[in-house]
Structures are given as structure tokens and as C-alpha cells.
TrEMBL record, chain A:
UniProtKB keywords: Electron transport, Transport
SUPFAM superfamilies according to UniProt: Adenine nucleotide alpha hydrolases-like (SSF52402)
UniProt organism field: Niabella drilacis (strain DSM 25811 / CCM 8410 / CCUG 62505 / LMG 26954 / E90)
Location of the Electron transfer flavoprotein alpha/beta-subunit N-terminal domain: 23-211
Family label: Belongs to the ETF beta-subunit/FixA family.
UniProt superkingdom: Bacteria
Keyword field contains rRNA-binding: no
Entry-linked Pfam families: ETF
Any one GO molecular-function label of the UniProt entry: electron transfer activity
Protein name per UniProt: Electron transfer flavoprotein subunit beta
Stored InterPro entries: ETF_a/b_N (IPR014730), ETF_b (IPR012255), ETF_beta_N (IPR033948), Rossmann-like_a/b/a_fold (IPR014729)
UniProtKB/TrEMBL annotation, chain B:
Organism: Niabella drilacis (strain DSM 25811 / CCM 8410 / CCUG 62505 / LMG 26954 / E90)
Cofactor(s) this protein cannot do without: FAD
Name listed for the protein in its UniProt record: Electron transfer flavoprotein subunit alpha
Family note: Belongs to the ETF alpha-subunit/FixB family.
Gene3D superfamilies listed in its UniProt record: HUPs, TPP-binding domain
Binding site residues for FAD: 208, 233-234, 264-271, 285
Domain Electron transfer flavoprotein alpha/beta-subunit N-terminal per the UniProt entry, residue ranges: 3-195
Role noted for this protein: The electron transfer flavoprotein serves as a specific electron acceptor for other dehydrogenases. It transfers the electrons to the main respiratory chain via ETF-ubiquinone oxidoreductase (ETF dehydrogenase).
GO biological process: fatty acid beta-oxidation using acyl-CoA dehydrogenase
Keyword Hydrolase: no
Cofactor, how bound (note): Binds 1 FAD per dimer.
Length: 247, 320
């Protein structure tokens, strides 16, 4: 079984969000970069668990980005992938990223393609569906459980107000949600092994550009909290009813 | 030329609330562009579709095909692409809900149509087509320029007010050619009596300050009095005090209700990322230094076990 896990580089969850170049670029000054948590905690760790259950399985990691992504790719390898591929393309849109991943996937015939439900920076939730469509594969999004029996996968996915269980034959593309697996910390053996695992850099194929970022902006600052005395909850209800008009 | 709006139907055959938001949004966009507003229904539905005309849509294309009885992203994509082509749609509109997140990217790749997911406002449609979306988990906006002739937008739930007017839609049967889905639905487990969290206008949420799952009764009472949905913070879900689908935050669900009432939640930045698009935030916490107060509109510093039952009584009094 061959598994591909897509890894995105995102700012740390506590990073200050600011913009430069006339509000057209994210200000990366002083930002700590991490593996997108949805890719790491859910997609990658579940893939590692599947390999632990089937040692013949291989895990490839893919990232579409510049050389500054190498550090987070090595960290992902320390957690468990066998080898990594970085497609050397800077700042493509979602479709550009999906096109590069689909190209690599076509050459390698993966049984499973895993990725996080969304990146925590652009919140697009787009790349998985695009990759599935480009490869003409089934796509199950927001998966919270994934079990494999032979070449049949039983997958639980989130729906509004509940969940749905479905069955699909491999190959398939899965976007991974909380519940799939639990976060792991790389151990020293993993970190040492990651240094010598292959990280192949390939040049991008031509891809259409469908969207561009025109500008970023920040939401207006909150006016500040209005505190109500704990002995006077009626006042809070009055404010919510008459001032905020939400109840 | 038209704006084609995907009308999402739940397992019980009812039109989802988020569909009313996208119908209103799509109809407004169609008026702005001077084109027709049309709806599309693929799933079995028990409601009268004509009545959806009051949200501003003139025609609803209804496909009835056994292969579409259950949602499957691949099969639905093929069906939507065929209807979009036949009707000459120039913009496709979805909710950024679970189904929309699966469909819109597939259609974007299939039709080479630029996608803006998580839109929070109507597009600017002068010389270029620019849509504002939420990014960095609600901490910023990005204005995305779509440069393809066909455009796709998914609208964030609870970010556009539903408007009802007069009007009756024409329901037009539509045919599509699709194979049986490769994904087979085995079971659906849905709390149909409760408001889905993502669609809820009011949300009551509990954190570690609740001290244990056995104490959730006071939050359930408050939620019931308000007709609110329940949510929780990550430590609560990780400790299995509450189910994972109630977890909101960076790695849980992102919500944007009118009211988010946080009880015993300190307000870590990762939690705020899931709720900072809420219109009004109320924080109840015994620690006046809890960071959540900085992001709140209203707050009470006090013992939640005393404050919450009193609040429930005060809400009941208000509602008479």
C-alpha cells in the first residue's frame, strides 16, 4: 500500500497576523513556521498508524513550496514518513498546489491520499477536492475515522449535526478532521532517522492560475468588554436583549 | 447567463438553513450582475420548492435521479457541472458547509473556475470580480480576485442575513447522466431534534472550568432556555467530557453565531480562532485575568456554578 500525505507550511497558531507590501503579502518577519496542524495531527499520524499495522506500506510526504519548507518537511519525516517530495513552486493558488500534487500522484499510483481538512492560514478546504477531481478519484472530506479492511475503507465523515459512515474502495482522497488520530511528538530516533531520509525536490509543471490575492485586511478592533456584576445577571440579559439584540 | 445556487438538503429531506443564506446571497449577486438567479436541487426533498422563490430565486432546476439519493462529492460534481453547462451559469454559489467544502473544489478543478471559499460578503463586480473571504481562522480577511470566466463562491454560514420577500419559483425538472456513486453511504447518525452547531444562531460553550462532564446539566438548561446549541473547548473534548463534534477552535469547528457564550473557558488563542467571527461574545469566568475577556463584548467575573443557573432563570423570565 502506498500512501501520500500532503503537508502544508503554516504560521504557528500564536503568530501575529500582519501584512506588508501595501497589504498584499503576509508579514513573515519573526514568524515561527509549523506543519499545518490538521495535516500533522490527523492526516500524517493516521497514515503512520496504518503503516504500523501494515509494515509493507510506504508513506510519501508532499509539500508544494520553496526551500524554506524543508524544516517542517524534516519534522514530518521525524514523525514517520519514508520519503518526501517538495515541488519547488512559490505561492501558487489552491488550484496550482492541487495541480502539482495531482502530477506527482499520477506518477506514483498511490492507494491513499491524505491531507488535513484545511490549512489554518488560508482556511480554503480546497486542495483535497481539487486533487480528487484532477485524478478522477472519490473524495471523502472531514473524515473523523478511517478503517481499512483489504482494499475497502470504512470512513466516518462529519455532517451538520452528526456523522455519516460510508464505504469506498481504494484509491481515494481523504481530508482528515479531528478524531482521526492524536497528536504525536517526534522521538530522538525519529529525528535522527529523518536527517537521512530522501527529500526530493522537483520542478513544478505548468498550471493554470484561477485566482489572485488582491489585498489583505484586519477586522476592526473590539470596543472592549463591558463587565456586569455577578450578582446582577438580569442586567446581562437586558443588555443582550436590548443593546446587542441577540436574544 | 445566471447565478446558479446549490440548495443543500438534509437527510430528512428538508432544506438546510444555510441554503436560505446562499439563496439570498445568490439572488442579490444575480441582481447586481443583471442576470437570472437559479437554484439547483439534487437530493430527495420533502418541501415545496416553489416557496423558495421568496428568497429571490426565479427558477429551481430539480434533478431526480437514484444515483443522487445520498451525497457523494464525485457524483454530485458531475451532475452540477452538467446543469451549470446547460443553464449557462457564470457564478456557482454554495454554502461553505460540509457538502459545499467537498463540492466546490471539485467543480473548480473540473470547470477551471476560480474558487473563493469562505466568502463573507457580496463580490465587487466592476472591472474585476473580487470576493472578501475570512482567512487566518477569522483573524483577517483576504480579497480574492477571480480571473476565470466561470466563478465559484462558498459562503461562510451565518455571515449573510436571510431576506424574505414575495415570489414563487418555477420548478424545472432537469436531467443528468451520472454513474452510481463509488462511495456507499452505510449509515447516517444525526441528532435531528437539535440545532446543528454550525448553523446555530446562539451557542453556549463550556471549558475546563466546568470541572467535569457531570456538571454539564446547568449548561444544557441554559442552552435549552436560549434555544442554543452546545459547544466546548479542546481540553473538554480531549478528556472525552463531551463529543468531538462539539469542539470549536483552531483544530475543531469554526463557528460564527450571533451569540457565543463561553463558560469556564480561558480563551487560548487556538480557541479564539474558532469563535472570533461570532457577532457577540459573552465570557463567564472566575479569573478576571482570563485572556478571553479581551476578546469579549460582555463579561461576568464570578463562579460559574452560581452565575449560570441565575442566568438561566433570568433568560426564562425574559422569555416569559
Amino acid at each position: 500500500m502506498k500512501i501520500l500525505v500532503c503537508i502544508s507550511k503554516t504560521p504557528d497558531t500564536t503568530a501575529k497576523i500582519a501584512f506588508t507590501d501595501n497589504n498584499t503579502k503576509f508579514d513573515a518577519a519573526g514568524v515561527q513556521w509549523i506543519i499545518n496542524p490538521n495535516d500533522e495531527y490527523y492526516a500524517l499520524v493516521r497514515a503512520i498508524e496504518l503503516k504500523e499495522a501494515d509494515p509493507a506500506a510506504t508513506i510519501h510526504l508532499i509539500n508544494v513550496g520553496g526551500a524554506d519548507a524543508d524544516a517542517i518537511i524534516r519534522k514530518a519525516l521525524a514523525l514517520g514518513g519514508d520519503e518526501a517530495i517538495r515541488v519547488n513552486a512559490e505561492n501558487p493558488d489552491s488550484f496550482g498546489i492541487a495541480s502539482q500534487i495531482a502530477q506527482v500522484a499520477k506518477e506514483n499510483n498511490y492507494d491513499l491520499i491524505f491531507l488535513g481538512k484545511e490549512t489554518i492560514d488560508y482556511n480554503g478546504s480546497s486542495v483535497g477536492g481539487m486533487v480528487a477531481e484532477l485524478l478522477d478519484l472519490p473524495y471523502i472530506s472531514l473524515a473523523t475515522k478511517f478503517e481499512l479492511s483489504g482494499t475497502t475503507a470504512t470512513v466516518t465523515r462529519e455532517i451538520e449535526g452528526g456523522e455519516e459512515v460510508c464505504e469506498v474502495s481504494l484509491p481515494v482522497v481523504i481530508s482528515c478532521n479531528k478524531g482521526m488520530a492524536e497528536q504525536r511528538i517526534p522521538n530522538m530516533r525519529g529525528i535522527m532517522a529523518a536527517r537521512t531520509k530522501p527529500l526530493k525536490v522537483v520542478e513544478p509543471v505548468a498550471a493554470d492560475i484561477l485566482t489572485e490575492i488582491a489585498a489583505f485586511s484586519l477586522p476592526p478592533a473590539k470596543a472592549g468588554v463591558k463587565l456586569v456584576d455577578a450578582d446582577n445577571v438580569q442586567e446581562l440579559v437586558r443588555l443582550l436583549h436590548e443593546e446587542a439584540k441577540v436574544i | 447567463m445566471s447565478v446558479l445556487i446549490f440548495i443543500d438538503i438534509n437527510e430528512e429531506g428538508a432544506v438546510k438553513k444555510t441554503s436560505l443564506e446562499v439563496l439570498t446571497y445568490g439572488a442579490r449577486l444575480a441582481r447586481q450582475l443583471g442576470v437570472a438567479a437559479e437554484g439547483l436541487v439534487l437530493a430527495p426533498v420533502k418541501e415545496e420548492l416553489q416557496a423558495l422563490g421568496k428568497y429571490g430565486v426565479q427558477t429551481i432546476h430539480q434533478v431526480q435521479n437514484d444515483a443522487l439519493a445520498h451525497f457523494d462529492a464525485q457524483t454530485y460534481t458531475k451532475a452540477i457541472a452538467q446543469v451549470a453547462e446547460k443553464t449557462g451559469a457564470t457564478v456557482l454559489v454554495f454554502s461553505n458547509n460540509t457538502d459545499g467544502k467537498a463540492l466546490a473544489p471539485r467543480l473548480s478543478a473540473r470547470l477551471k473556475a476560480g474558487l473563493v471559499s469562505g466568502a463573507v460578503a457580496l463580490p465587487e463586480t466592476g472591472d474585476s470580480f473580487i470576493v472578501r473571504k475570512s482567512v487566518f481562522s477569522g483573524k483577517a480577511f483576504a480579497d480574492i480576485k477571480v480571473i476565470t470566466p466561470l466563478k465559484i463562491i462558498t459562503l461562510n454560514p451565518n455571515s449573510f442575513n436571510i431576506e424574505e420577500g414575495e415570489g414563487v419559483a418555477i420548478v424545472a425538472p432537469a436531467e443528468v447522466t451520472v454513474d452510481a456513486p463509488r462511495v456507499k453511504t452505510i449509515s447516517v447518525n444525526r441528532q435531528s431534534s437539535e440545532v446543528p452547531l454550525a448553523e446555530a444562531a446562539l451557542v453556549v460553550s463550556g471549558g475546563r472550568g466546568m470541572k467535569g462532564p457531570e456538571n454539564w446539566g446547568i449548561l444544557e438548561d441554559l442552552a435549552k432556555a436560549l434555544n442554543a446549541a452546545l459547544a466546548c473547548s479542546r481540553p473538554v473534548a480531549d478528556a472525552h467530557w463531551r463529543p468531538h463534534n462539539e469542539h470549536v477552535g483552531q483544530t475543531g469547528g469554526a463557528i460564527a453565531p450571533n451569540l457565543y457564550l463561553a463558560v469556564g473557558i480561558s480563551g487560548a488563542i487556538q480557541h479564539l480562532a474558532g469563535v472570533n467571527r461570532s457577532k457577540v461574545i459573552v465570557v463567564i469566568n472566575k479569573d478576571p485575568e482570563a485572556p478571553f475577556f479581551k476578546a469579549a463584548d460582555y463579561g461576568i467575573v464570578g463562579d460559574l456554578f452560581e452565575v449560570v443557573p441565575k442566568l438561566t432563570e433570568a433568560v426564562k423570565q425574559l422569555k416569559g
